[in-house]
Write a structure and sequence with these properties.
- By secondary structure, the protein is of the alpha/beta class.
- It contains 12 helices and 12 strands.
- The protein starts with a helix and ends with a helix.
- Bound molecules: S-adenosyl-L-homocysteine and iron/sulfur cluster.
């Protein structure tokens, strides 16, 4: 619930409306029961507990990288489903990568989440509770959020929008839109809708190929919206919001990493406010995908830069703790199957 909705509840329960701000503050501090709201009367706390519940994320597993301190959480939700989040420390503070769905319907062939199938959408509160639980666990304020964990955020659009409203609310966690990134495989109609809302968040597009012929092999969504339709939507997003778009490109040896691919990509992105993020692919799905060599990646970057496209190679964090999308949940599922 947002503050206005809680206010209505307070009034309907015969409370003064300022009570809403009190309850809202507690919720955004990450309490997991009404009992913890110590400045409310005992009687009122039990009335709340009879009518409502707080859907918190419970830490089921936690792994800390010995290499860089990255923390990976496996959270259990109220119905027993599990999602992953990853906490990363950067020079500018803590950033948390969170999930928007349990699993994903999109079936990208390189992705561990896609491989595990789809279970359900997360509610706004369940998306938010990952940030709160990570913050409570690390004891430091989280300043940045990336919606890049499990699931396709634009396939759970209403809940994600509500989450964005809640997490950025000044009475709540107050994390500004400029500190939030959302990554999508390219649900084109929602990109137009998001553009028209003119939120200041950073949009990342999982592109991973310069043309339909290659993209359709790894990303089934490309059958619905091809590369040109997707880039058209991106140009609209850039024009409407003035924000630079970030393109994710997983480098897969012999699939999408040739000089010709780099040249075609540069040509496609020409004139667009963009940045390309190259990620050596993680072989997690047993599909035999192999990372491009560092020399190949360097050459790819040089070709892009030579044509005026800025590109960087994504730093790998938490490689010792399965810190990529969907890997931990998948491993736990496999262990459960073995048991
Ligand atoms: N569904 C959204 C957000 C979650 S995926 C999306 O696809 O954008 C987060 C990012 O990790 C995406 O860019 C995705 O393409 C990338 N990714 C998934 N599996 C990967 C792998 N095995 N190696 C490298 N990047 C991967
Ligand atoms: Fe889903 Fe994103 Fe994985 Fe594709 S890459 S299967 S859209 S989570």
């Amino acid at each position: 619930m947002n503050l206005a909705e809680i206010r209505e509840v307070m009034v309907s329960m015969g409370q003064p409306s300022f009570r809403a701000a009190q309850v809202y503050r507690w919720l955004h501090r990450g309490v997991i029961s009404f009992e913890q709201m110590s400045d409310l009367s005992k009687d009122f706390r039990s009335q709340l507990a009879e009518r409502f519940y707080i859907p918190y994320a419970q830490i089921l597993r936690k792994q800390v990288s010995a290499l860089d301190g990255t923390v990976k959480y496996l959270f259990r939700l109220i119905d027993g489903e599990c999602v992953e989040s990853v906490l990363m420390k950067y020079h500018h503070g803590y950033s948390v990568c969170i999930s928007s769905q349990v699993g994903c319907k999109m079936g990208c062939t390189f992705c561990a989440t896609g491989k595990s199938g789809f279970s359900r959408n997360l509610r706004a509160s369940e998306i938010l509770s990952q940030v709160q639980a990570a913050q409570a666990d690390c004891g430091t304020r989280i300043s940045n959020i990336v919606l890049m964990g499990m699931g396709e955020p634009l396939d759970n659009y209403e809940n994600v929008l509500r989450f964005l409203e809640l997490v950025s609310s000044p009475e709540g966690m107050n994390i500004g839109m400029r500190h939030i990134s959302l990554s999508t495989c390219g649900i084109v109609d929602k990109i137009y809708d998001l553009a028209d809302r003119k939120l200041q968040l950073t949009l990342s597009i999982s592109l991973h190929a310069p043309n339909d012929r290659i993209r359709v092999r790894t990303m089934p969504i490309n059958r619905r919206w091809g590369v040109e339709k997707l880039l058209e939507a991106c140009r609209y997003y850039g024009k409407t919001t003035g924000r630079r778009i970030s393109f994710e490109y997983a480098m897969i040896s012999g699939v999408n990493d040739s000089d010709a691919c780099a040249e075609e990509l540069a040509q496609r992105l020409h004139g667009m406010l963009s940045h390309v993020n190259l990620i050596p692919v993680n072989n997690v799905t047993g599909n035999g995908y192999v990372k491009s060599s560092p020399e190949r990646i360097k050459r790819f970057v040089r070709i892009l830069e030579g044509k005026g496209i800025t590109a960087t190679v994504r730093r790998t964090l938490g490689s010792d703790i399965d810190a990529s999308c969907g890997q931990l949940r998948r491993r736990v599922q496999e262990e459960e199957v073995k048991v």
